[in-house]
What we know:
This protein is α/β, with parallel strands linked by helices.
Amino acid sequence: MSLVSSYSDWLRRGMRCFDAAVALLVAFALMRMLPGLDHTERLEYPLLIIAGSLLLPACGELIGLYQPWRGRSLYTMLGVYVLSWLTTIVLISLLLVATQSTQTFSRLWMGAASLGVLGTGALIRAALYGYLRRLRAQGHNIKRIVLIGPQSNVSRLEARLGSMPFVGYRVTHRVIGDSVKAVRDEVRSLATVSIFDRDFDEIWLSYPLAQGDRVRQLADELVRVPVSIRYFPDLSDVRLLNHRMAQVAGMYSLDLNYSPLNGPMRLVKACEDRLLGLLLLLAFLPVMLGIAALVRWKMGGPVLFKQQRHGLDGKSFKIYKFRSMALHEPGAGTQQATRGDPRITPLGAFLRRTSLDELPQLYNVLQGRMSLVGPRPHAMDHNEYYKDEIEAYMQRHRVKPGMTGWAQVNGLRGITDNVETMRKRVEYDLFYIDNWSLGLDLKILAMTLTRGFINRQP
């Protein structure tokens, strides 16, 4: 076993112990510090603390919290940690309800201990993540790799790794050549001398898909070497949105428009939407009631604007907003708001500028028809137009539309008065779909608080 593998195993065990220790220490400290907490000579508190401290790393192991951090973003790692923490809280709550023990413990202590564990664990994780990045950038904790492929592909991979020294990969060997026999002979020789003793940790192959036979031959030669073998296909000759290898009916396929938001991850995102959506609805409910009263007073009824939009898989649903325009006869198609639009009332202009008119969509989120984060839903006739103008436009509907999105927090919102503007927005939407993670969702929600509410467009 290499030093890097040994270090990774040690780190995984250490992080599991760390999570358990944080839960123990924080919960016990708050139990001692909170005034008026009757915990003396009672075993219930220590037993609950021990159960929670053991449950947290167990949930983390199931969700993938202790997978190697190398190459993962900080937001993704913290997102998985938050999900592990939420799962632990839910399981403990169910245990307390099942045993009818909810009245035994102080709610103030349970809330403080839960948030204390979350905050402490997240802060130390973020600090350790930054430390490891600096350590790798300085040449420590490095994984040594062998690159095999044509000169252009090897150079492309080296340039990519050179631009990201913090991921901790260093090229130690290269096998380059156009001659099939020469490359295979060199690979066979490398494999023979590297079976039991080697100075590399991974082998990376990079060839076009059309040269699949060569990849298979080289993989057969390398299978004797007990290290990870990765294939980075050169897909320049194939039009792809995003891709992955999958096994279907015992056969391997290359999914050409794969999104991480599939299978179990849809359940994860649904839990995220329901839990955070409910919390946000409760937090904004007084504001929403106040806005509803103002709209009724200033503009009369109805308070809500309702319109059909395309959602997941292109299916229609009814979207809700606070009404921001005076009542008018609808035209043949959807007319976008423009600067100085006489239909927009003064109150409506304020609601649109602050995005407060979008708050009723929290109900759409709780209905399961929208997500907190996702591509913004466009008017149906706009979809009819742009689906023929922008090649991958309808790929936006592979996920639920969102109240906020990657395009919106990057300034692509409001009027789309030409194809190029819409094309740029679609590029950001597809980036979100192709690179979805719980961490990316949390990042977008955080960015929405700082730059996503104020809308300078009509």
